[in-house]
Amino acid sequence: MSIETREGLWGCVCDTGLENLVLCSSDQDTIFITSGMWATYVPPAVDGSHNIEFYPCPPDYCSCVNDVITDVSGTVCMYAYTNSNPDLQCSCNRRGVLCGECANSSSVTALFNRCSDCSNHSFLLIPALIIVDVVVSVFIAVLNAPLPEWTYPFLFYIQMAPYAVQYFPLSFSTVGKYLYFVGSASSFYFVYDFCLYNGMTSLGGSALRYLPLLTGAATLLPLLGLKLCMSKRRSTIKYHGLWMIVLLSFSHVVYTSMSLLNCPSITDSNGHTSPRWFVNGEVECFSGSHLYLGVAAGIILLLAFLLTVTTTVLPLTQARHKRQWVTKLSSTLSFSYRDKCEWWASVELSRRIFLIFVLLTFPRNTTLVILVLAGILALFGHAHPYKHRLTNISEVAVLTNFIILLALRQTPYVIDEYFQFPSEEGEGGCGDNVPRGVATISWILLPLYYLPVLVFAVLIIARIVLYGAPPLWARVKKIKIRRREEGGFHDNSLSMSHRRPASSMPTTHTSLRIARGVTHGIASVIRSNKKKKSWRNNGLELRATTADDHEDLIDPFL
What we know:
By secondary structure, the chain is of the alpha+beta class. Helix content is 47%, strand content 12%.
């Protein structure tokens, strides 16, 4: 298709072979394009050449318009480009390159980057988020309990599925956004989409997404350093709390960093080609404020890559290290995996990095995302990395459900969605929201979308009912025991100065206390050995474990 530039004429010449072009309107000013695409005119016009370029529009940035276009199913809401007013293709309160800039003095919301009228009443939620993140980080660090193995498949789905369905029909996003809230909450970020302060930009919103990372680092690193300095027996320190926080926040941080570096080359209406930030096309990459955030994002991605490499190397080389803290860190990483898959923690991180890269680099290529998930499914189905069979089955089932969900999205259907049409009162104005109901395909997709979350919730409730929630006081008692053991072998049950007279102690209670003291004594002797001891009995290798390891193994929530 080309646009003729003779004076007084803005006519469209339709080229049926041009990708993403559906048809032209009779007014010779509007073309209808593929759903979810953004179009721009590229001068100078040359007869016989294509002077319209198409780019994927960020999720919910572009709007379909209800024109008199019918098929066997009725009126269809289609995406359109109007040459006399290009911003008509943008959603409410949006304009500019990729519809990335907020219009009418609106501000960006915290989660979905929607342009909304805003006040400063919600600004106090930012320090509130910092306080909550500090409290949660300290609680997890003090509790220092491993993340239950059976939660890994569901955690991956909760974190990644909201990113994979961003280009689903708008009618799906109106009822499918709640899983995004759950994933955001699990990453220590806001649990709802709202405007934080008046004048908030896309760059400001991206910077705020690093708050959980900065808060966690500022809280955990001093705590870990203090514990290492004050502990007399560093070999007994475990890192389960640190690994839990990494696993919960990793996807959120990587997605934010890769989004900041997502800079496609775009030619604007003036014919100037430059790398533009995909989240806000009006921002040129690595210029102004984006330069600082881009450098920070690059450093964070480098650290994420080094962390992934470390989780691979440490478990494979722990036998060569004589330092006990290396062995303890390696055992933390391999805690949920069977003996031949000690390094599988790196796969947990790698699959998140690779899938996020594909989702951002090829934003509308659902087929490629399905192929990536199929590869992950084949890898986990073949390796069976987890210790328990049910967890391996859950992993395969959740990934299969994920693939079916995306495959159904590829089926042909009529776009029947909530949409917004621009008003004729002025540029950038907003029309009314016209509810057309949820598309039929969305009612099929929604049960599959929420099924893993419902199963996850049922499993949590079932475990609480069957086993009972681990009481906090029991965890606190374990922490006190660890601290006493780190200071050296000392048990009050064997100290004559602190023991009650034998006559005042029941015989059974005395025996239990003496047995517990002997158990702690044996555990302390085992910890003092720098080399691991193993015995072979009938071809089975039995590894000596500490009392703390036994405490974790008998926890019904693991």
